[in-house]
C-alpha cells in the first residue's frame, strides 16, 4: 500500500472537489537508483545515521514511508555497512516509518536475513537511531511498556525503555571477557522477537494478534531457547575450551554467530511444524533443537577461530591434526573407571567430551571436575545423582588427562548443513530451488560469491553431503534438436518470462532487447536450469542484440495500464483501498463517479459530479485520505479511504443526523422521542441491504425508509406506511 510522493493540487473544475493529489514518481519509470526526488516536508528533521541490528544487518537497504502508510517519501537508503549503519539522502520526516526493503534484506552473521525491521520516527524528530525487532513491534502498535512486560512475563525481566534506543551489539562486539547477562539481555530480546515474527510469518504482529495463549507460549519457548544458546556461562566455557584449542582469544561474536545459525535451524523446524499441525508446537521440538544447536556450537565457534588464524593445539602445547583425533592423552586408569565411567556414559557423554576417552561433544570436562558439584546443585539438565555416583564421576573425570582430540566435531550430515547454510535463500530442502545440483557447481557459486554465498565455508565433503540429500531433478525426455534461429530459441527458452522489444511485449521479466551479452554469464550460473549449445547461445545472443529494449508508456486512456480495474493490490498505483466496496454499490458503476480524467499526467484526478454534493455544500477530498460533504455519507467526514471501516447496518449515525440539514437526515414523526434507541430497533437490516443504497447520486440518496421498518430482529411486528401505525413496543401506536 505504497503511494509514491504526495503533493497538493489546486482547485479542480467548477463543482469538482478540491483535493490533495498524488504526484507519481513510479519506481518502474525512474529506474533503480538511490535517492528520491521528493520535496522535503516542512516538518522534516535532520538526516540521522541509523543502525540496523539483530545482530548487525549488513548490505541491507531501507525506505521511508509516510505516517499514513501509503506514501513513499524516500525510495532507498544507503546500503548498511559492517556496523549496520545506513542513512538517507534527504532528511527524514517526523512520524514517518523506516522499513527494510523486502528485496534487499542483507545478511547478519553470515546468513541471509529473513526478518523485517521497522521504526517510526518520533514526533519530536530523529537523532541517530537503532532499528531492530523491538522497534518493529513498537511501530506495529505496541507500547514500550507492553513489550517490556511481554518479555518479562515470558522469562526475560530487566529490559528497560532505554534499550529501545540502544545498539545491543555496542557493549558486546569484540569482547573476550566481562560478558554479563545484563549486556546480553537487549540482544537476547531482539533475537527472540525476530524468531517469533519469522516463525509466525507475521511481521505486522500487533497486540490484538498476540492476545493468544498459543502465541504467548511460543514466545516463552523461543525466549528460553535463545537464552540457552546465548548466555555468559556458555560463553565462558566455550571461550576457555576453543581458545585453548586454537591459541587465539575468543570474542563473544563467535557465540553470537553460533546462536544466530542455531536460531535459523530452530525457526525452520518451527515453521514446518506449524505448517503441518499449527500451534501449539510439539513439546519436544524446541528442546531437541536447542540440544542440536548446542551440539554444533563448538564447530561453529571453532570455524570462526580458524578464520582468525587460530591453529588447533592440544592442551599440552603440541599441535594436533584437526580431525585425526591423535594426541598425547594417556589411557584411562581402569582401576578408577568402574562407577565413574558408567555415570559419565549415562549422563554426560551425549553432550560433552572427555580427553582421549571421549572425543565427540561440545565442552571438554577434562580439568573441570571442580564445577560438577555446583552444576548439579543448580539443576543442570535436570540430572540428579546420589552422593556416591557424584563422587565417582568427579574421581573419573579427574583421572583423565587432556589430549589433542578435543577438536569440535565437523558437521557431515547433509540435511543439517542444508538448513544451516542453504535454507535461508533456497527454501526448505523438499522444495529447494537450487538448480544445478553438483559439487562443482555449488563450489563455483561459493567462489564467485553468487547471492552473497562467498561467506560460506564448506569442505568438499560437506558440499557432497548437501548434494547427496538434494531431491533428484527429473530430467525430461530428450526433445528434438534445438532450433538454429533466434526467434525459435527465444520462444522455447525465454518467452515464458521475458519480453523482447517489439517482438514480444507480454512477459513480466526484464526486456532482453539488446541484452544478448548477458546470456552466457546467466546460463553458466544455472539460470532457471537452462542449458544451451555454444552455437545456439551465439545465435540467440546475436538475434537479441538486433533489438533495443522498448520503452512503453501506459496509454493515457487505459485505466488498466498501471492498475487493475478496480485497483486490487497493496502497492501504489494498484492499491485497493475502498474501491471494491464502492463499486459494489448500486449506481456506482464507473470511475467517473470519483475521477474526472484518466490522463497519464502523474496526477490522480479526483472530482465528484454535482449530484454527489451534500445539501450543505460541494463534495471535497481531504489531504488525510477522507472526503467531506458527500451526499452518500450525509455530508459527514468519511472513514479513511485506505484503512477506514464502516458497518453500514449498525453505524447509522456515521452518515445520518437528526434534523433537516442533509438529504438523508431523519426528522419525521416521533424520531426525536426515540433518539435514545438504536436505529435497528425499528429498521430491519435485512430489508436495508436490498434498498439502502438504491438512489445514490440523487437527493433521495436511498430507498424508502418506511419500507425497512419491522420484521426480522426489530421490535416492530407490523407497520402500515399509509397510516403510519405500528405494532410493537407500545402495542399499537401512530408514528
Task: Tell me about this structure.
With 735 residues, this protein is mainly alpha-helical. The protein has 20 helices and 15 strands. It has helices at 27-30, 133-139, 144-154, 181-200, 213-229, 232-246, 252-277, 285-307, 338-347, 372-377, 387-399, 414-421, 423-426, 439-447, 460-469, 486-493, 519-524, 534-544, 579-583, 685-691; strands at residues 3-4, 50-52, 62-65, 71-74, 85-86, 97-100, 107-108, 111-112, 118-120, 129-131, 620-621, 627-628, 718-720, 725-728, 731-734. The strands form five sheets. Strands 1-4-3-6-9 form a five-stranded mixed β-sheet. Strands 5-2-10 form a three-stranded mixed β-sheet. Strands 13-14-15 form a three-stranded antiparallel β-sheet, with no helix packed on it. Helix 5 runs parallel beside helix 8 (285-307) and helix 16 (486-493) crosses helix 18 (534-544). The longest helix has 26 residues, at 252-277. The chain starts with a strand and ends with a strand.
Amino acid at each position: 500500500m505504497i503511494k509514491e510522493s504526495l503533493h497538493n493540487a489546486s482547485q479542480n473544475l467548477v463543482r469538482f472537489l478540491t483535493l490533495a493529489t498524488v504526484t507519481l514518481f513510479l519506481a518502474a519509470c525512474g529506474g533503480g537508483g538511490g535517492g528520491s526526488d521528493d520535496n522535503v516536508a516542512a516538518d522534516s528533521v535532520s538526516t540521522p545515521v541509523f543502525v540496523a541490528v539483530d545482530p548487525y544487518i549488513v548490505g541491507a537497504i531501507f525506505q521511508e514511508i509516510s505516517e499514513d502508510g501509503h506514501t513513499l517519501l524516500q525510495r532507498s537508503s544507503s546500503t548498511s555497512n559492517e556496523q549496520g549503519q545506513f542513512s538517507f539522502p534527504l532528511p527524514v520526516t517526523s512520524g514517518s516509518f523506516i522499513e527494510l526493503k523486502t528485496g534487499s534484506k542483507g545478511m547478519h552473521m553470515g546468513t541471509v536475513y529473513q526478518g523485517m525491521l521497522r521504526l517510526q520516527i518520533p514526533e519530536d524528530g530523529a537523532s541517530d537511531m537503532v532499528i531492530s525487532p523491538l522497534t518493529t513491534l513498537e511501530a506495529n502498535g505496541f507500547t514500550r511498556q507492553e513489550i517490556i512486560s511481554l518479555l518479562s512475563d515470558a522469562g526475560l525481566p530487566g529490559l528497560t525503555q532505554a534499550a529501545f534506543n540502544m545498539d545491543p551489539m555496542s557493549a558486546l562486539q569484540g569482547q573476550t571477557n566481562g560478558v554479563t547477562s545484563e549486556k546480553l539481555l537487549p540482544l537476547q530480546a531482539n533475537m527472540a522477537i525476530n524468531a517469533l515474527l519469522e516463525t509466525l510469518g507475521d511481521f505486522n504482529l500487533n497486540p490484538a494478534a498476540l492476545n493468544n495463549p498459543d502465541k504467548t507460549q511460543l514466545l516463552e519457548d523461543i525466549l528460553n531457547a535463545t537464552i540457552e544458546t546465548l548466555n555468559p556461562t556458555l560463553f565462558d566455557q566455550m571461550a576457555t575450551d576453543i581458545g585453548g584449542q586454537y591459541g587465539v582469544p575468543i570474542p563473544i561474536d563467535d557465540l553470537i554467530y553460533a546462536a544466530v545459525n542455531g536460531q535459523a535451524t530452530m525457526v525452520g523446524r518451527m515453521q514446518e511444524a506449524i505448517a503441518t499441525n499449527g500451534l501449539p508446537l510439539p513439546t519436544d521440538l524446541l528442546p531437541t533443537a536447542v540440544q542440536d544447536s548446542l551440539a554444533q556450537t563448538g564447530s561453529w565457534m571453532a570455524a570462526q577461530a580458524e578464520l582468525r588464524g587460530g591453529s588447533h593445539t592440544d592442551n599440552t602445547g603440541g599441535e594436533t591434526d584437526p580431525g585425526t583425533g591423535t594426541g598425547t592423552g594417556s589411557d584411562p586408569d581402569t582401576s578408577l573407571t568402574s562407577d565413574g565411567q558408567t555415570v559419565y556414559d549415562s549422563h554426560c557423554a551425549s553432550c560433552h567430551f572427555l580427553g582421549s576417552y571421549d572425543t565427540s561433544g561440545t565442552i571438554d570436562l577434562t580439568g573441570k571436575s571442580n564445577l560438577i558439584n555446583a552444576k548439579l546443585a543448580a539443576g543442570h539438565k535436570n540430572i540428579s545423582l546420589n552422593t556416591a555416583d557424584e563422587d565417582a564421576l568427579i574421581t573419573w573425570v579427574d583421572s583423565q588427562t587432556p589430549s589433542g582430540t578435543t577438536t569440535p566435531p565437523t558437521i557431515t550430515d547433509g540435511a543439517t548443513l542444508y538448513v544451516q547454510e542453504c535454507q535461508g535463500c533456497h527454501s526448505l530442502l523438499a522444495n529447494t530451488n537450487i538448480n544445478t545440483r553438483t559439487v562443482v557447481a555449488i563450489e563455483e557459486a561459493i567462489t564467485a560469491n553468487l547471492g552473497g554465498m562467498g561467506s560460506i565455508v564448506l569442505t568438499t565433503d560437506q558440499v557432497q553431503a548437501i548434494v547427496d540429500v538434494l531431491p533428484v531433478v527429473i530430467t525430461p525426455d530428450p526433445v528434438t534438436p534445438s532450433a538454429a534461429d533466434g526467434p525459435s530459441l527465444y520462444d522455447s527458452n525465454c518467452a515464458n518470462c521475458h519480453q523482447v522489444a517489439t517482438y514480444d511485449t507480454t512477459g513480466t521479466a526484464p526486456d532482453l532487447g539488446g541484452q544478448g551479452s548477458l546470456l552466457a554469464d546467466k546460463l553458466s550460473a544455472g539460470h532457471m536450469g537452462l542449458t544451451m549449445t555454444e552455437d545456439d547461445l551465439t545465435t540467440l545472443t546475436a538475434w537479441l542484440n538486433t533489438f533495443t529494449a522498448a520503452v512503453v508508456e501506459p496509454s493515457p486512456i487505459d485505466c488498466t495500464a498501471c492498475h487493475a480495474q478496480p485497483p486490487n493490490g497493496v502497492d501504489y498505483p494498484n492499491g485497493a483501498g475502498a474501491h471494491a466496496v464502492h463499486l459494489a454499490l448500486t449506481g456506482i458503476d464507473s470511475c467517473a463517479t470519483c475521477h474526472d480524467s484518466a490522463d497519464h499526467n502523474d496526477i490522480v484526478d479526483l472530482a465528484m459530479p454535482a449530484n454527489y454534493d451534500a445539501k450543505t455544500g460541494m463534495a471535497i477530498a481531504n489531504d488525510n485520505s477522507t472526503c467531506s460533504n458527500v451526499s452518500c455519507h450525509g455530508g459527514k467526514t468519511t472513514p479513511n479511504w485506505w484503512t477506514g471501516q464502516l458497518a453500514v447496518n449498525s453505524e447509522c449515525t456515521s452518515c445520518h443526523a437528526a434534523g433537516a440539514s442533509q438529504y438523508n437526515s431523519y426528522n419525521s414523526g416521533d424520531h426525536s422521542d426515540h433518539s435514545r434507541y438504536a436505529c435497528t430497533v425499528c429498521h430491519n437490516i435485512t430489508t436495508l441491504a436490498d434498498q439502502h443504497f438504491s438512489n445514490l447520486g440523487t437527493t433521495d440518496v436511498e430507498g424508502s425508509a418506511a419500507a425497512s421498518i419491522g420484521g426480522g430482529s426489530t421490535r416492530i411486528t407490523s407497520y402500515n406506511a399509509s397510516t403510519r401505525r405500528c405494532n410493537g413496543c407500545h402495542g399499537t401506536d401512530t408514528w
